[in-house]
Design goal:
The structure is a single chain. The protein is α/β, with parallel strands linked by helices and 149 residues long. It has a domain at 77-146: Ribosomal Protein L15, Chain: K, domain 2, CATH 3.100.10. It is 13% helix and 13% strand. It has three helices and six strands, in the order αββαβββαβ. Strands 1-3-5 form a three-stranded parallel β-sheet. The model has no long low-confidence stretch (mean pLDDT 91).
Length: 149
């Protein structure tokens, strides 16, 4: 076998449509453009998204404005009054918070805020603490363990 013997299988190579070459060709007269109208004329193309004068879909839909920071770190926030259900002297870590239903999963980043009061001495482990939460936990005799990100 030589390179000049190679042929495409029958039916794979289709001849180009030759428009405007007489009525016998099947693509004569209007050359497959139908009758009159914008699309029958030379240069008569319409831009993508044009809907015949109706307000196009891309203008009908609302769009998000503003800036979205892809480096933002999301925290699950917990106020101090939510920690009141734990026994005095117990260790409150992300696993214990997830078991108590305060957060969805123990893998979430947690920030403790100073909303409400705390009367018990707890050892609270979280990723971040607000200044007021830190002050209230230590005032109640508890300790703070700040976890790394």
């Amino acid at each position: 076998m030589k390179l000049n013997d190679l042929r495409f299988p029958a039916g794979t190579v289709k001849s180009k449509k030759r428009v405007g070459r007489g009525t016998a060709s099947g693509h004569g007269k209007t050359s497959g453009r139908g009758m009159k109208g914008q699309k029958a004329r030379a240069g008569g193309n319409i831009r993508p998204g044009f809907e015949g004068g109706q307000l196009p879909l891309y203008r009908r839909l609302p769009r998000m404005r503003g800036f979205h920071n892809i480096f933002r770190v999301e925290y699950s926030v917990i106020n101090l009054d939510r920690l009141a259900g734990f026994k005095a002297g117990s260790e409150v870590d992300p696993v214990a918070m997830a078991e108590a239903g305060l957060v969805k999963s123990p893998g979430e980043l947690i920030k403790v805020l100073g909303g409400g009061e705390i009367k018990k001495a707890l050892t609270v482990s979280a990723h971040k603490f607000s200044a007021s939460a830190r002050q209230k936990i230590e005032a109640a005799g508890g300790t703070i363990v700040e976890l790394g990100l």
